[in-house]
Design brief:
The protein contains 2 helices and 7 strands; from the N terminus they run αβββββββα. It is α+β, with helices and mostly antiparallel strands. The chain has one domain. A hairpin with an 8-residue loop joins strand 4 and strand 5. The longest helix has 22 residues. 10% of the residues are buried.
Amino acid sequence: MFCIMTGSATRSLNRALRQKPTLSVSMIVFEIKLNGESIGRAGTDDLSVLTAIVSAVGKLGANSQGASDEKDTYHVDLSVGGLTARADAAKDEHLDWLKQRLKPGDVIAITILESRSADAPTSTKPAHTEDAFRQQFEWAKKFYLENRDKFEDR
């Protein structure tokens, strides 16, 4: 479906988009449905990020060379996760609710709710660990060393 808006309808939409909603209950929740059936409700009362991502990786078209692990095939996945923002940032966590393989014809529906309840995450891991910082540092160092000749003044 395609819709063109003009005049007062456009101004009303622009005003609505500029308004920032305020939370009237305890948390934002994503209710996820796959082919009409509920497969989960994601959210906690200490989140600052809540994501639902559909990704397709591999040979996605006739002229594609594919991806490193998917040269001749592909896969489509749904991931639902989040990141906490607690008073003590050292206790923040990455949370996961869903990791679901999808297939052609699947229909994903995400309803954004204000709610007092959601499903518990299926996995958690610390957001700020020495290992995570070390990995970020090593990646940045490798990138720099591989590319410094392109960017540094000679």
